[in-house]
Amino acid sequence: MQAKQLFNKRSIYPRSILVIAILSIVFWLPACNANKNGAANPDRVVEQYLLALENRDKNLMLRLIPENVPISEEIKAKIVKFGGRKIQERQIKYTKYKPILWSAKISGFYVDRNGIRSKFDDSISIEYQSKGHVKLYGGRWYLLLDP
After folding, report:
1. How far apart are the first and last CA of the chain?
2. Distance (Å, rounded) from C-alpha 31 to C-alpha 36?
């Protein structure tokens, strides 16, 4: 009789549904919280930032910025100032103000439309953001532009 109770449909079915629901939450939670903005590390933020400048790609630059940050004018200003130039002999110097807040000084050269080699200097801030204390979500690095 005890064997019948252990394998009774009424007891197995709700338990299996509960187990499946818990496993689904555990495996799908990181995917739901995954932010597609930002980058995995500061080097990648700088690389993507320079690529966005070189290609005058506003959308790529927007993907480096935290969600819900309205700074389209700052992006336009950066693209107008530095956009469309292939930056060569890049040198990147990081300054760590805090473990989550870095500054990147980017220097190098580009050749302008007249064939003249000109100096490139720019500075950006990079910040690490994580959503809460969930260990499954590692957080991302973001580009911060001054207003």
Report:
1. 74
2. 10
CATH number for the domain formed by residue range(s) 38-144: 3.10.450.50
Token readout for 12 is: 């197995």
**Domain definitions of the chain by residue range:** 1-33, 38-144
Whole-prediction pTM: 0.71
H helices present in the chain, as ranges: 2-6, 9-33, 42-55, 58-63, 72-82
Asked if 91 and 107 touch (Cβ cutoff 8 Å), the reply is yes
Higher-confidence residue of 53 and 10: namely 53
Give the residues across from 97 on adjacent strands.
none
Q: Above 60 in pLDDT, residue 3?
A: no
The residues, ordered by sequence, that sit 6+ positions from 71 with a Cβ below 8 Å of its Cβ are 65, 145, 147
- CA distance linking residue 71 with residue 142, whole number of Å: 13
